[in-house]
Design brief:
The chain is built from five helices and twelve strands. With 250 residues, the protein is an alpha+beta fold. The strands form two sheets. Strands 1, 2, 3, 4, 5, 6, 9, 10, 11 and 12 form a ten-stranded mixed β-sheet that branches. A two-stranded antiparallel ribbon has the order 7-8. A hairpin with a 3-residue loop joins strand 1 and strand 2. Responsible for synthesis of pseudouridine from uracil-65 in transfer RNAs.
């Protein structure tokens, strides 16, 4: 008897046209030239949830980012929802834990140079695109640990709503305002990342896609989809007052 293969995706919403799942951190959405050795992808797991039929990712989540991921179950729905995403008609909300006490709210309006998928093209000139991210501080904390020469270390939990969808936009924008996301190996602060990796026995990016609001491309129903962060994210959030995130993902 063949043992059933564990599926790391969790179904959040399904109908005749859409499949929405929660993707854990560390899982690629689909094959990438950067990670040619990888053999597991959200795309293949979503297909298994769709009785083996093709599914079509309509947006991306970086490998270290966890949270809501939308697949269309036919090409026409994928095309329509993709256009809605490009036009800004889909509202995305993320949670992030960042270094320092960031301002209470604001918009980061900072153009970003495109980052090609193929690293061999990084030396080529790349266009600069407009990029905007709204943020709101939800909570702050400080811990009595010296990490960068100060007797205490401060952190914020922030809600992020990007108006544009540039590659690594949230990570690059938070670095731009000097509040990098904890666990970000490329744009973060190594000492803080190492502290949390050692304290909690895991190394992960503290960024999670928690809400999506959009008009269904076929039924025109307004969908408001939510998914609480996974356990590894909530574990690190224990440095904050536990009342800031009352729920856990079922």
């Amino acid at each position: 008897m063949t043992e059933a293969v564990h599926n790391p995706l969790t179904e959040v919403y399904r109908d005749a046209w859409l499949l929405v799942v929660h993707k854990p951190a560390g899982l690629l959405v689909h094959r990438s030239p950067i990670d040619r050795h990888e053999t597991e992808f959200a795309l293949q797991y979503a297909r298994s949830m769709n009785d083996g039929a093709h599914v079509y990712p309509v947006h991306r989540l970086d490998r270290p980012t966890s949270g809501l991921l939308v697949f269309a179950r036919d090409p026409q729905t994928a095309s329509q929802l993709g256009q809605n995403l490009m036009s800004g008609a889909v509202q995305k909300t993320y949670l992030a834990m960042v270094r320092g006490w960031c301002p209470e709210s604001g918009m980061i309006d900072h153009p970003l140079r495109e980052e090609p998928e193929d690293r061999r093209r990084k030396a080529e000139p790349q266009p600069i695109r407009e990029a905007r991210t709204n943020y709101r501080r939800l909570a702050t904390t400080e811990i009595p640990v010296e990490i960068e020469g100060y007797p205490i270390s401060r952190y914020s939990l922030v809600e992020l709503q990007p108006e544009t969808g540039r590659k690594h936009q949230l990570r690059r924008h938070l670095k731009h305002i000097n509040h990098p996301i904890i666990g970000d190996a490329n744009h973060g602060r190594g000492r803080h990342n190492r502290y949390f990796a050692e304290r909690f026995g895991q190394s992960r990016l503290m960024l999670a896609a928690t809400q999506l609001i959009f008009e269904h491309p076929v039924t025109r129903e307004r969908l408001h989809l939510k998914a609480a962060p996974e356990a590894s994210f909530l574990q690190v959030l224990s440095v904050f007052d536990c009342s800031i995130w009352p729920g856990r993902r079922e």
